[in-house]
Specification:
This protein is of the alpha/beta class and 305 residues long. It is built from 12 helices and 9 strands. The mean pLDDT is 96. Bound molecules: phosphoric acid mono(formamide)ester (CP) and norvaline.
Length: 305
């Protein structure tokens, strides 16, 4: 049966752990410079409605390094821009390529594509979720901390797509996730409703409470792609800036994470992102290894349920 990653809700706890461990293994193997081509002859279509540096390049490089190829499309160069029904596009692409990775505004577009495609569909970011980002971020936490369980993981800032995928991951894995968002910028109600299954999740408006004694601190932009005209009030977010003062409340060996791109002086200061606790470059690299793990699992010959 084909599988999709439209959100982390598509995966079991065991599958999430499997993908993280596979990414860590692939990272180690990548240093040996062996050439294996498990995806030879396979083609990934990338359909992107929004800009991307890391996600696009790491998916493309992942395919090439696994022996496969890619077709990169923006929505406006396809008939999707002229209202061809998603169910038609999904079925046609399924006849040409072996998987689709999509970056969209609407989560529904990804869900609808997955429903009609006979090939795996991967969410490469929507307004609602960024599941592969969080899978690779979990890989980074495990790489630096050796474990996921028992750690205090903090999120400070907007309750956005990345935050919402962190909540899903924490619910699946029962992680200790402590989130601080400004009033009015909390995650969506349906995401918070599901988070009630996780007694280790808390949501506060107090950034110090969230980062106090934390092992891992995450932040992200205050204004996500597509929200530029929503006029988010930067004043409201100021207390949530990840600066040296806020960081001082975390454990002294806490790691600082940001999925990038970062806006220095807004959600994070230059001192913190360039400081000794920042792991953002390894975090960005791990998207490549995690995408390889995802592609091998979804498109390769590994058994899937
Ligand atoms: N973190 C991330 O998804 O970056 P890009 O927008 O550059 O792909
Ligand atoms: N929340 C950000 C993530 C960028 C990778 C956005 O959606 O723009």
């Amino acid at each position: 049966m084909k599988r999709d990653i439209t959100s982390l809700l598509d995966l079991t706890k065991e599958e999430i752990v499997f993908l993280i461990d596979k990414a860590i293994k692939l990272k180690k193997e990548s240093k040996k410079k062996q050439t294996l081509s498990p995806l030879q002859g396979k083609i990934l279509a990338l359909v992107f409605e929004k800009p991307s540096t890391r996600t696009r390049v790491s998916f493309e490089v992942a395919m090439y390094q696994l022996g496969g190829q890619v077709v990169f499309l923006t929505k406006d160069v396809t008939q999707m821009s002229r209202q061809e029904p998603t169910k038609d596009t999904a079925r046609v692409l399924s006849r040409y390529v072996d998987a689709i990775a999509m970056r969209t505004f609407s989560q529904e577009l990804i869900n609808e594509t997955a429903k009609w495609a006979s090939i795996p569909v991967i969410n490469a970011l929507s307004n609602k979720y960024h599941p592969c980002q969080v899978l690779s971020d979990l890989t980074t936490v495990k790489e630096f901390k050796g474990q996921l369980e028992g750690l205090k993981i903090a999120w400070v800032g907007d309750g956005n797509n990345v935050a919402q995928s962190w909540i899903n991951a924490a619910t699946k894995l029962n992680l200790r996730l402590h989130m601080a968002c400004p009033p009015g910028y909390e995650p969506d109600a349906d995401v918070l409703e599901r988070a009630k299954e996780n007694p280790n999740f808390t949501l506060t408006h107090d950034p110090i409470e969230a980062v106090k004694e934390a092992d891992v601190i995450n932040t992200d932009v205050w204004v996500s792609m597509g929200e530029e005209t929503r006029g988010k009030k930067k004043e409201v977010f100021k207390p949530y800036q990840l600066n040296l003062e806020l960081l001082s409340h975390a454990k002294s060996d806490a790691i600082v994470m940001h999925c990038l791109p970062a806006h220095r002086g807004e959600e994070i200061t230059d001192e913190v992102i360039e400081g000794p606790q920042s792991v953002v470059w390894a975090q960005a690299e791990n998207k490549l290894h995690l995408h390889k793990a995802v592609l091998e699992w979804l498109v390769g010959s590994e058994p899937k349920k």
